[in-house]
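User: Structure tokens for both sequences below?

Assistant:
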Amino acid sequence: MPSKQCTTPSPGCPTGHCLTTGSNRPCAARGGTSVGLLLLDLDHFKEVNDTFGHHYGDELPRQIGPRLNGMLRGGDTIARLGGDEFAVLLPDVHGGEDAIHIATTLLSALSTPFHVEGVDLDVEASVGVVISGEHGQDPITLMQHADSAMYVAKTQNLAVFAYDPNVDGHSATKLALLGDLRRALERDEFVLHYQPKVNVSTGEIVGAEALVRWQHPEQGLIFPDAFIPLAEHTGLINSLTRHILDAALAQSRNWFEPAGRCRSR
């Protein structure tokens, strides 16, 4: 894939120096941190051009750049790559979870409509996330992998996706599972199985370990090794964790409250 080029000026969105200029030099990070790269692509941008005209399609990204730029930390850099695509360089992140959090923050900044010549335009976007070292070292490789991750995010309606070499356009099964994952939370398809913890000296049950399973409507019971990594790559892991904790605490209350005692282990 050819290297991305910063081609289209946008106020508050520098393009005088490209995030990558075709160099294969390693991306350097500060001690203890990594370099992150986000590739953000607007969803349904063609519909804006087709419905309102290309003038609106030109003006909208000009407003998006400054809003995104205002959400970044000191030292981060955003560039418009042309059309409806932006890249964000994060020179100091603590792994993928940190970069996914920043990507989610940028998407939340787009939730307020943009006012273009009397018309309020709602904007959504998809973001691919890569981390230097973990997903590549040189800018070209990182940009390629960010583009792949963004494609997965867009085609599966995931909003944010961190690059996973095991999930790409050639893995139809994984892509289908990704598409089902977000809907699984909404449909309450995750179930908990409880494994008792026994005191070997007394034989008394002193607690239980909650084991999550996905009761998929078509594939049946799916074990966590098949979906937890996908949840981590999409940023859904926090929602899934809260869901599991809520379910486990509710079950614990049902077990112990009638007996007048409630223990948490």
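Moving on to the next sequence.
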Amino acid sequence: MKKVNQYSFLAKATLSTVLALSLTLGACNQLQDRVDPASDPDDVAAEQMSESDQAINDALNVVEDGLDGNFDALGNGRIEACGTIRLDRQQRTCVIDFGTGCEGPFGRRRSGQISISYTDNQRTVNFQNYSAERITLSGTVVTNVTGRSNTGLTYNLTSSNLQVAAETWRIAFSSIQRRTEVQFGGTNRRLSDGTSTVTGTSAGTNTAGQAVRSEITTPVVYQGACSKQRIFYAVSGVIQLRNGDRPAVTLNYGTGACDKQVTVTVGTQTRIVTLQ
């Protein structure tokens, strides 16, 4: 009978165990890197805040463009939109009406109404069941234009009752304090090849009734040219987000690339979340 080398057998068994353990740990690490955003509350909060911020930025660009009665890019920011504009210069009011829905350039579909009363530098904006794609805005914001030129404009935004919602979630903002600098693009002052840079803070509650607070720690930049790729999210900047009593979440939008990715960091754990 052939004898089995005991030491050789033990060595092979040990090696097999080590390899199996390594593969198991590697698989666990891969699973950790591929966390389903729908299953992680921090990732869910990151996505909801990203969606809310881009929807607010986009809607205010629509307001600035429509205030001269035309989506024409002249004298204000240019947004690629559809719908009708009813401008009353005597009463200093403007209604931008997208009806039951219309699709503008780049395939962005809007519906509902935006009503504006304005002075030379202040706009009181009321969103009436206004939606852009799957995000709905309702409530009121006030913007104060602090600077305007042929190359851009700067305004401060305040609100105490703005609600941003999708089919499965909602954020009711009780406070928004932000400053936005718009640089018009080179083509007829179009925002679609310009940039918006945003700083400030916000606070509110989410669908679960938890407090949500955000602070922009590095200016958040939206690149209009990305809309041609149907990408409307920020391309750079950092936001610190607090969701209930959970640890702080840091959202980093990168260094300028047109994509739907945000790097989410909680403590020592970092992962990349792809937004919708």
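User: Anything stand out in the second?

Assistant: Confidence is low (pLDDT under 50) at residues 6-37, 72-78.
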